[in-house]
Amino acid sequence: MPAVISIAGLNKTYASGLTALQDIDLDIRRGEIFALLGPNGAGKTTLISIVCGIVTPTAGRVTVDGHDILRDYRAARARIGLVPQELYTDMFETPWATVNFSRGLFGLPPNPAWLEQVLRDLSLWNKRHDKIMTLSGGMKRRVLIAKALAHEPRVLFLDEPTAGVDVELRRDMWALVRRLRDSGVTIILTTHYIAEAEEMADRIGVISKGRLILVEAKTALMKKLGKKQLTLHLQEPLAAIPPELGDWGLALNNGGNDLEFRFDASKEHTTIPELLRRLSELGIGFKDLNTRESSLEDIFVSLVTERR
């Protein structure tokens, strides 16, 4: 699948000497949902701001749909919709006036049918003539999304789009994101709700200390880095792991009542049957067992922790 955004050798160092981005190379494919994850201060917002033409890079090149963001700014920016973290808009305007104005900023002719569809998809149609200042925080965030979609962009950046949004509104937003992706819009999102990235994204990028440390298809990432954990709830607590089990990498938890074993979920064969036989030979009984597979959040935390 061709890239709609190409980033090569991107660096950003501020006048203060702070290096926010270092040697970023990234291609984002047309029509995918790409989740950019990273701790606070990792460089996510700086990267988005450069692609959207808000921040000037120190070095490197970025193109959007073939248009260089510096040499051909207007054409590149016209293809991008941006939903920022901050809830800023003209609070005395109405949603209808706001989306009309936003569309006009890009020199596009009026298209009431498109704007109506956007507002209906975001459950804003009944609020279209209300002052934005009277809307809830979740509704105000929806207005920002509507503004970003007013000029029919082919790339949509969502920077923490569901922060402060209740569960019902969040589900509606992600339903809209799926419909946009199905229509060919490329979605790039940052989120602190990693479970959402796990559910929604086609590919995952992890940024830490200004460096892109991993870009992987979500399914491949989960398969490659995911681990499973077997927990045995023992019949009698153990004070320590017997020396005969020292090579298994086991851990005792819950006051010695739980014996935990981590193994590679991607391998065809595990050594669990052998472990259970060995426990039986040592007279260690268990009353229950369960397994848990690593989530994307587990993988993210382990990747970022390794880079500290």
UniProtKB/TrEMBL annotation:
Pfam families: ABC_tran (PF00005). InterPro entries: AAA+_ATPase (IPR003593), ABC_transporter-like_ATP-bd (IPR003439), ABC_transporter-like_CS (IPR017871), ABC_transporter_ATP-binding (IPR050763), P-loop_NTPase (IPR027417). The keyword Transport applies. GO terms for molecular function: ATP binding; ATP hydrolysis activity. SMART domains: AAA (SM00382). Gene3D superfamilies: P-loop containing nucleotide triphosphate hydrolases. Residues 5-234 form the ABC transporter domain. Keywords: ATP-binding, Nucleotide-binding, Transport. This is Multidrug ABC transporter ATP-binding protein. It comes from Sulfuricaulis limicola.
